[in-house]
Amino acid sequence: MKSSVLVKSDHSSFLIKYADWVKKLPESEIRRLLRFSPKYYFSGGKPGILPVDTFHQIMEEIISEERILLKRKDSKVLEKYNYGATEGNVDLRTILANRLRKRDHVSCSAEDVLITAGSQQTLFAINDCLINPGDIILTTRPTYLGFLLPAEKFGAIIVTLPSDDGGLMPEFIDSAVKLCKQKFNKVPKILYTIPYSDNPKGTTLSSKRKQQIIDIVFSYNDLLIVEDVAYKEIQFGKTGNYIRPLKENDPENQRIAYLSTSTKEAASFRMGYSVLPEGLRHAMVKAKGYYDLCSSEFVQAILARYYEKYIDLTLPLIRQGYEERCKAMVKAIKEYMPDGSSTNPTGGFFVWFEAANQDFDSHSFVQKAIEKGVAYVPGFAFYPQFGYAVTEDSKLVRLERPTNSMRIGYSLLSPKFITDGIKLLGKLMKEETRKVPSKFSTFMV
Ligand SMILES: Cc1ncc(COP(=O)(O)O)c(C=O)c1O
User: 292 CA distance to ligand 1 centroid (A)?
Assistant: First the structure.
């Protein structure tokens, strides 16, 4: 992108001079791809199963209650149509705190809960409040780009650790901290992790790994865990296979920022909710006051009712639907995609595929695929632009973003469309990879 642009009008012209980050960082690849809507849409994590009639019912309940207040000329009716507290509506925070205590084993009260515009606002605010240029963040590679881009915007050094089919590999945390001390003369500030069905790979941390992570991270005084549980409600199985969070190990609420969101089960309302160590929460309320003053009171009233009365009635069907979609995708990948490896999620929205042909460039190929009717997110987008990698033999090197991977989302389409779309994608990729000689075959020639 150009660093400035000349804007002309009839009367004047002037130069817009952007802040440095605008030219340094790209638009989110997921947001960019949302502009295209091919028949087989596997790119953004758009929920395709939402309890719309339940939302209607809730709004009807709220409106009929308001009609009674209006008749009585009760000024309480104005509250939902007004500005509210920056940290969020206290009724909603109380309901969420009760649910977090009972279901997530997170020790908290309404005062500990912060409401935001989706979890994305929390991710941005965490970086805004904690990161000075040159501060270090540890995370897996690949990881959620919605965390990476704000981190890079604020000048973080991102050091990535290897991940496998079980997610973050705890054995690399200690060596990462040591390597950071050697190279940058400081210890990392944040470990960012997505324990359940992570974005982009769909992997889930075992209890054993969680305990190892806690033991290692808590042995350092000033390393904060940012635990992003965006997919915690979309865990497959009858009971949602509920696995206990890292945050359970932080009853004093000091070491772990616990970030959740309503958007996977109630996307349109754009509400994130988090439990944050007290000092951090104060800073984040201040930051939120700068971003948007407060969240919509009306939307919070809808969500308060949803979380209090309806969510557990709707979730079993929602989970079952996503599980069917996931199974259809995993099966279709095995059947139709070219040689490569893929994950087998137990929840969430995404499968990660790595083509065996290392020369396959999923980034340049995505545009061709979209023209033929199928979209995914190229894997390179889930790696930092300017990051570092702790290698499997514990060295710290500049990260090179691999190009042979892709995130394929199954949340939006029905199993039949998933099968047909993956069949098409597989066919297109096989045609493409035939054109791209692998390094080995080039050598043979
Ligand atoms: C891991 C993860 N964290 C956070 C978010 C942002 O969520 P929200 O839509 O609530 O802003 C997403 C969205 O896809 C996500 O996958």
Answer: 19
**Judgement on whether residues 353 and 287 belong to the same structural domain of the protein:** no
Query: pLDDT confidence of 8, banded at 50, 70, 90?
Result: low
Q: Which residue range(s) make up the domain with 206?
A: 56-312
According to DSSP H, which parts of 267-310 are helical? 278-292, 297-305
Q: Which of 236, 115, 219, 104 is CA-nearest to residue 173?
A: 219
Q: What residue has token string 């929840």?
A: 347
Which residues are CB-neighbours of 337 under 8 A, at least 6 positions away? 353, 422, 425, 426, 429
Contact residues for 97 (Cβ-Cβ < 8 A; gap 6+): 108, 109, 110, 112, 113
pLDDT band at 437 (very low <50, low <70, confident <90, very high): low
Instruction: Measure 259 CA to ligand 1 centroid, in angstroms.
Output: 10
Q: What is the atom index within ligand 1 of the atom nearest the CA of 121? A: 11
Q: Which atom of ligand 1 is nearest to the CA of 120?
A: 11
| Phi, psi (rounded to 5 degrees) for 236 | -75, 170
**Is 380 found in the same domain as 233?**
no
Residue 149 backbone dihedrals phi, psi, to 5 degrees: -65, -50
Question: Which of 5-9, 14-18, 306-310 shows the lowest per-residue confidence on average (mean pLDDT)?
Answer: 5-9
Q: Under a CB-based contact definition with an 8 Å cutoff, are residues 387 and 336 in contact?
A: no
Q: Are residues 217 and 355 in the same domain?
A: no
* Token pair 């973080």: residue: 156
- Distance from the alpha carbon of residue 271 to the mean position of ligand 1, in angstroms: 10
Tell how strand 388-390 and strand 157-164 pair up. parallel
User: Do 41 and 61 have their domain in common?
Assistant: no
pTM for the whole structure: 0.93
